[in-house]
Design a protein that fits this description.
alpha/beta; Dna Topoisomerase Vi A Subunit, Chain: A, domain 2; 10-stranded mixed beta sheet; 29% helix; binds adenosine-5'-triphosphate
Length: 604
């Protein structure tokens, strides 16, 4: 059932078929009152007035319920998170100078009415660009009508936003309930589409950059139900990177890429040069993302050219020089890590992924049931991050503790075993949601044997493992993630002559030689307490530009904060005589969060 009366439409007691009735929008102002100019399709809820052009869609009960639930969600979302500063809106600043209005309408060719609708303000303030007071056009960022942030922009193109205020998409309220939306790279571009008649337009808040943390809170409430998402980023390198990341987060199947006319790099330039009608045509002609799994060299033309001109680049480094020399990482790849029980596989992988996250902004998702309860794991991660023991020890101030917890909240997510079986499909589905909602780029499964192994009829263990590794590799490629699988070796026998245990190798992983064959990287963690050394064997790196296989890196493990310090192995002269051990150790007890914002990353 659809409640037409709620919208002032009299259906004369009918609830199916098509009728004509009085239009609630224009009837009062009509000379010919009572004219039945509104055509209503009662079954489909679609209404159209042939006199004033009023269009309305009346939802059915189920849609209405969903809408209310979404509004409730939105209400809750807008109360969160409270630790951000919230500026107050000053209506007095909405009185704009003639110069600004002229700039808006004549130089930018934007619709005058938007100035009031978007509650644009004008203010003189000091901007970081030249530290002088400048007159600024201010884009106010509202959510549910509440001011969340403001972007100040001067004629000299200096910018600032409110310190400590949350970054959210510009004009987010406009897409709360719409089936489609347009995402632009700047506010002027969003206004260009609005000037052309579209209302469902938002802009990213901080230009083209691949850290999209600002959208995490809105994925479920504002993007999940969208059928089509137009991505109207700039036609330059940074814009392309933004475009890629938005497509990765929002799902290629519903994204369309908007391209602008010759000589125009963005929507506003297109509007100025070719006009509003033409700008709307860019939407109609927006490019669909090519079919998955079907490629030609044309699809890769630009990447191939870059590769041709620049050569292959090293991957993402960790900051451990000795390790980086032989192993760097790319997303879209899989890593298998192994080692004897208790040798520090989890400890090492924890530090590896924290380093990648801090240096490259790669957010982490863990399925790590052995690290349960999850707060034990958080405590270990905080020790590595701060370089301090977890607890109220000297140096661990309340501020640092809160900073660490907030950083973990923004960058690390745990998938916990719930009531559902922990099959690989279940974990990958959760991980997929985290890619969309939180921008995750690293998935750690630690360890493999804690997954529920559900063999299909007729499937052997070998077939199961091969299929599982195939699923991990496909997930890595499809979602451009680094997938890290920790796997235990089979029981190792001691050398009968020496009684020594040889080190674990990738072919020793329990179940199949395919762990080594199918992964892109193979690492083996081996601890030697007599030498006080940990050796990480880099047994496989599939691509030579990323590193070299059959190499290793030595570390000292610091028990207090769980960090791995790079070192070399040599003869150490001590009171008990000369014996092999660590030399040239690179001690590091620095607080890694020192120079970073809670949601950001460290680039050193
Ligand atoms: N080199 C080391 N020296 C001393 N303690 C270590 C070392 N490496 C790891 N540990 C400690 O050993 C314990 C086990 O480490 P971790 O869980 O990382 O090992 P693992 O190889 O993943 O074990 P498992 O095979 O049981 O999953 C942890 O408490 C860790 O702090």
């Amino acid at each position: 059932m659809r409640n037409f009366h709620q919208y002032g439409i009299d259906t004369k007691g009918r609830n199916s078929g098509k009728i004509k009735t009085i239009c609630p929008k224009c009837n009062d102002t009509r000379g010919h009152k009572g004219d039945k100019s509104l055509a209503v399709n009662l079954s489909e809820g679609v209404c159209y007035c042939h006199h004033c052009g009023y269009k309305l869609y009346v939802p059915d009960d189920a849609e209405e319920r969903q809408r209310k639930q979404r509004q409730e969600q939105l209400r809750k979302v807008s109360q969160l998170p409270s630790h951000f500063r919230r500026p107050t809106f000053d209506p007095a600043k909405a009185k704009l100078s003639e110069k600004l209005e002229k700039y808006w309408t004549q130089e930018r060719c934007l619709a005058q009415n938007l100035l009031a609708e978007l509650r644009i303000t004008e203010e003189c303030t000091k901007l970081p660009g030249n530290n002088e007071i400048e007159n600024c056009l201010c884009f106010n960022y509202f959510e549910n009508g509440i001011l969340i942030n403001t972007k100040y922009r001067s004629a000299l193109k200096h910018f600032k936003m409110v310190t400590g205020a949350e970054l959210i998409p510009y004009n987010i309220d406009a897409i709360a309930d719409t089936p489609e939306c347009i995402i632009t790279e700047g506010e002027f571009d969003a206004c260009a589409f609005m000037s052309a008649g579209r209302k469902d337009v938002i802009s990213v808040p901080a230009g083209a950059q691949s850290n999209l943390t600002w959208m995490d809170r809105f994925v479920e409430t504002h993007f999940e139900q969208k059928k089509v998402i137009y991505i109207a980023a700039d036609e330059d390198g940074a814009g392309q990177a933004l475009r890629h990341e938005l497509v990765r987060r929002l799902g290629a199947e519903r994204c369309r890429l908007v391209h602008f006319g010759p000589g125009c790099k963005d929507a506003n330039e297109h509007l100025i040069r070719y006009g509003a009608e033409s700008l709307l045509i860019t939407l109609a002609q927006a490019e669909e993302i090519p079919l998955e799994g079907v490629f030609t060299a044309e699809d890769y033309r630009e990447d191939l050219r870059a590769l041709f001109e620049n050569g292959l680049c090293r991957g993402a480094d960790t900051g451990w020089d000795n390790f980086d020399a032989n192993c760097t990482f790319e997303t879209g790849r899989s890593v298998v890590a192994t080692g004897s029980p208790g040798h520090g596989k989890s400890e090492f992988i924890d530090e590896l992924v924290l380093r990648l996250c801090l240096r490259h902004g790669w957010k982490i998702a863990y399925f790590s049931p052995e690290n349960s309860p999850v707060n034990y794991h958080h405590a270990k991660l905080i020790e590595k991050l701060t370089g301090l023991q977890f607890g109220p020890v000297p140096g661990m101030t309340e501020e640092l503790y809160n900073h660490s917890v907030n950083w973990l909240t923004a960058n690390v997510t745990h998938i916990l075993p719930g009531t559902d079986a922990c099959t690989i499909d279940h974990i990958l589905e959760k991980a997929r949601q985290l890619v969309y909602r939180r921008g995750v780029r690293i998935l750690v499964i630690d360890p493999l044997n804690r997954l529920d192994q559900q063999l299909e009829p007729g499937q052997t263990e070998l077939m199961y493992i091969t299929s599982l590794l195939g699923k991990l590799n496909r997930f890595a490629v499809q979602h451009k993630c680094l997938v890290i699988l920790v796997a235990h070796p089979r029981k190792m026998n001691r050398n009968t002559a020496t009684g020594e245990l040889r080190r674990v190798e990738m072919n020793d992983i329990n179940g199949s030689a395919n762990f080594g064959n199918m992964s892109d990287y193979c690492l083996c963690v081996s601890r030697d307490d007599a030498k006080q050394l940990v050796t990480v064997y880099i047994d496989k790196v599939r691509f030579k530009h990323l590193g070299s296989a059959n190499t290793d890196a030595k570390f000292v493990y610091n028990r207090l904060n769980g960090r791995y310090w790079p070192c070399e192995e040599d003869i150490v002269h001590g009171p008990d005589g000369d014996k092999p051990g660590p030399v040239n150790t690179k001690f590091d007890n620095e607080n890694w969060l020192k120079n970073i914002a809670e949601q950001g990353c460290l680039f050193n």
